[in-house]
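Homework help board

Subject: predicted structure for assignment chain

Our instructor gave us this sequence and asked us to write out the predicted structure in token form, then describe one feature. I got the tokens but I'm not sure how to describe them. Can anyone check?
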Amino acid sequence: MSIKLEHLNYVYSQGTAYEKKALKDICLEIPHGEFVGIIGHTGSGKSTLIQHLNGLIRATSGELFYNGENIYQDGYNMRGLRNEVGLVFQYPEHQLFEIDVMTDVCFGPKNQGLSAKECEERALEALHLVGLKEKYYKVSPFELSGGQKRRVAIAGVLAMRPKVLVLDEPTAGLDPKGRDDILDQIAYLHKESDLTVILVSHSMEDIARYADRLIVMNKGTVMYNDEPKKVFEHYQELEQVGLAAPQVTYIMHDLAGKGLPVRTDVTTVSEAADEIIRALA
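My token output:
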């Protein structure tokens, strides 16, 4: 269930005085089962990019293939695509609207034509996967905390049993514990449910910890597309476009500059600790 973009372009307000090229000649492939991180400063095109993945936005030019089929060909089953590629927006309030949590999570399966019993089974499974306690199932989603709302929004997509889960800043506005809880749950889902996960984030630490591959967007183009360790080797170039590397990257470069024989390509705190202990030994 791979996703492949070939020379994809997108122009906002084409042909008007407000015309803006948001995506420029994007060529990417995301194989099934990968955990991909996408980063970029505000206006870099990352949110526009992910909205193409389930056909929410149609490219101005170029092709997008899902599982080998061009989604822009005549007669393509766009509804089927959206059942398989689930998108969770940055603000869960945009996706929550039912009277209680259970009804909200049942909405997607219901639209897929499933029976009431099947919808409830799907919803219970999804709510369990995201770790939301049963006492909240009959509560209005608008009475929940920010982290709980995000869990419900993710559950609503998971209940449709997608093959690809796309998340736009799922931890925005959460405290450190809430952020870790959500991301740990997403990592668990990726492993246990055989999902492809595409995560948009501003946190370099989060991307370094969870992603197999990192796509860096800059001015509507792909600046880097590689494993996080290799991307963060270019931390000075990232700084020039308003981004940064994880804090441990800077610490390890400083230690190396002072003569400690440490590797500078580590990206997580645990890796840095192991490397410092090794160097001191």
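Reply (TA_rk): Your tokens look well-formed. For the description, you could write something like this. The chain is about 40% helix and 20% strand. That's the kind of observation they're looking for.
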